[in-house]
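Below sits my pick:
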Amino acid sequence: MHGTRGIFPTEETAWKFLATSQEATADLHDFHFIEIPYIETAQTVLTSMRGGAQGIICIMKPSSGGADIALRQGTELGIIRSYIEEKLGRFAQPLRVYHHGPVFLCDADGKKTTIKESYRQGFDIIGDNDPIYDGQIITAALSFLDALHIKNAIFRINALGCKTCRTTYREKLRTYYGSNKSKLCDLCLKTLELGIIEEFECASSKCKSIHDEIPSILDYLCYNCNNHFKTVLELLEDNGIAYEPCPRLSRVFPYYSKTVFEFRAPSGQLLAEGGRYDYLADMLWGRNIPGVGVSFHASNILKVLALEKMVFKPKIKTPVFFVAVGEQAKKASLRYISEIRSHNIPVVESIGKKSLQVQLKIARKHNSVLALIFGQREVYEDTIIIRDLSSGAQETILLSNLMAEVKKRLK
C-alpha cells in the first residue's frame, strides 16, 4: 500500500540488529517491554491535540457505525492510557518502558490523502517529574546509539516551559512574527494563521533570517521551569554529555512541556526526538501523571548505518540440513525433522526440490554443518545418510541412532 511499508527477509539482519540493540539497552537501563494498540478513539486523539496539527491524524470511520478511530501518530497517548487503565504504577514507580512499532501520519494534498507509516523505537519513564529522569532518558538514548555504533551524534536541547511560561512566550512570538508578516513565505503565513507558532518547518531562505532572530523561550521561563532546565543541563555536564542549545527546537504536540531534545547524525538525518509530556494525562483524564520519553526513527537510523557502510552480522549457520528424495522419503521426513528440532537443534530443508544435487547446493548456501540424506532406499532400510559438508565424508547410520550421532558430530 502506498505510504506504508513492510519488513522483508532481505532486511532481516538489519532489523534484527535494531531490535537486539534496543533490547540490550533496555536490559542495561532496567526498562520493561510494553506493546500498545495501533489505534485509539479519534475523539481521544483530537482532544490531545487541542486544535494543533489535527490534519496529520489518520481518522477512519467504521463501516458498521460507532465512534471514529484514529491510527496512532505517536506512542505517548497509548502508554499513559495503559498506565492508568492497567494501574502500572503499582508495578513500578516510576515506570520504565521500551517499545517498538509503526506510527502513522496523514499527508493531505488537495483531495488526495496519503498515509505515511514510519517505524519507531522508544524509551519512556512515567510517573515522576524529577529532572533526574530527563537525564536518565537521555543517557538511555545515548546508550542505544552506542549499541548501534552511531558515533558523533549531535544532541540538541531546549525548554518549552509550563503553561504559564508558554502563554507569555506565545504572545511575544505573535508580536514578533506579526511585525514581520511581509517577510514570511506562504507556508509560514499559513502556520501563523493556524496558531502553531512554535513550529515553523519551512526551509525557505526568505524566512530564515526571521526565524533565526526569534525571542528565546529561555528568557521567559518561570522560576520552577528555569530550575528544572538548569538541573538537566547540570546533569549533562556532570556526565560529560556534549549538547547544543537550540532555542527554536519545539514539538508540534501541545502536551509537551519543559525539556525537549533531538539527536541528529552529522549528515543531518533526524535520529530521535524526545522530551517531557507532563500535560497529556491532565488533558485527557484530569490526572497529574508526568512522563518523559524518546522516540527513534528506525528508517533514518538504517540510512545512516548504510552511509557508514555498517556490515550486519549474517544469520548464524544452521547446523543441520535435511535432504529428502522421493515422495515416501518426503512424507516420512517431517517426523525426523521434528525430532531433531525437539532437541533444540535448528534444521533447514528444501524438500520441495526433487533433485539431490539442488538440495545439497542449498545446504551449502545455508552454511550447514551436516546434511542428512533420506531417500527411498533409506525409508525401507530404516537408515539415513549423514554427510559432513566441509569434508564431504559420509556414512549410513540407523535411524534409531540419529539423535546420538547428530549430537556427537555437532559437539
